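Standup notes, structure subgroup. Blocker cleared on the aspartic acid input:
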Amino acid sequence: MPGVSNFAKVRQDLSHHKEEAMDNLIVAKFGGSSLADAAQVRKVIDIVKGDPRRKVVVVSAPGKRFAGDSKMTDLLIANQVMLARERFAQIATALGIDVDTSDLCQMSGDLLVSSGEYYMGKILAKALDYTFVGASLLVRFKTGGILDMPATKVSCEQFRDLAKRGIVVPGFYGALPDGSVKIFSRGGSDITGSILAAILKASIYENWTDVSGVLMADPGVVENPRRIKTMTYREMRELAYAGAHVLHDEAVYPVRKAEIPINVRNTNDPADAGTWIVADEQLEESTSTAITGIAGRNNFSVIALEKAGMNAEVGFVWKLLDVLKKHCVRFEHMPSSIDSLSLVVDERELEGKLSFLEQDIRAACRPDLLEIERGLALVCVVGQSMAHKPGVLAKLAGALAKAGVNIHMIDQGSSEVSIIVGVENNDYEKAVRAIYKAFA
Ligand code: ASP
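Run returned:
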């Protein structure tokens, strides 16, 4: 079982917890593309050995080797156990390492899905001659599946001394109070790395991937977008939440609280400095662009309500949100005017619920008009330097108008860190390219 089989061995190495900061420790997390095959793993070994501070290594499961290939995690979700074992055997054999994956045949659920990280961790630990520490020993969830940070802290502290000598930890999962394995959401190894960096008080949290840092826009949409050299935690979280795939949005919190910089680096180009994600006060003055980055996604719905006198009706929004709560539907934005209000909701949230939700909203809020518009894309433009700068919105709207893109909704919080624009799904790429061209 991931995390437990090596426990006895690891325990012998434990010594008493010391409260000292590990100033010269780097937590280095390697994503699936960095571990897709033996050739990639060799690059990872060189990177780790290239800096003696890289003593805590967190791994994802092997990712895609070529377009159309499957990620290890997807093989495991599809219960393709033999294919998964074959891939691990290929990687291990090419590196001259023995790995016994026969337990995979008896696994199911989160235990099986997390075993891509588990066996990758085993292989890399042997290759580096670091100690393997299963994530069930470190990352703790409460019953119900919420991360239990205090318990995780207590567990991690016990490995502090071992960490100074070099450990490999599989990302993406932890243990529930009954000891069973629970996974994070997809891409969750980033969260594991961030938690470990925060608790062990690392000096840097390195996140190694297959691009040279965070790019200003999706390279699949914009040709050759500029790299962001430095950005703030808040900007990263906004971009990640909006759809930038480079880092899990929940990975920002732990290191942000501990004020540990994140350095996003490229395993295929380790000489490149990548992107630094830092606290506001550490941000270099941005001189070139008003915006930091653009991200977004398709497939949102707008639930639009109109009612004469809505502004005067005490508790109107409360009734609406109560219906959403009843159906467990989260919403992204709530633009409103005097007699109308819209909720922007990810369409995945509405699957199988839409007609019941509609009925209940009508009964609770008694709107004059209720319309549900599907097929909206949200484009999120992020940049702390947009704040207090006149003309940014005008430039953005002008660029979209010139490109023939109709704006369905627009939302800017008072912090002025991001502007969110709703456009039709079909206009999404055109909108991103137009905004990039106007600001980059
Ligand atoms: N292997 C998992 C996934 O594909 C977790 C991760 O890579 O962080 O989502």
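Discussed briefly. Residues 1-20 have pLDDT under 50 and may be disordered.
Next: hand off to the docking folks.
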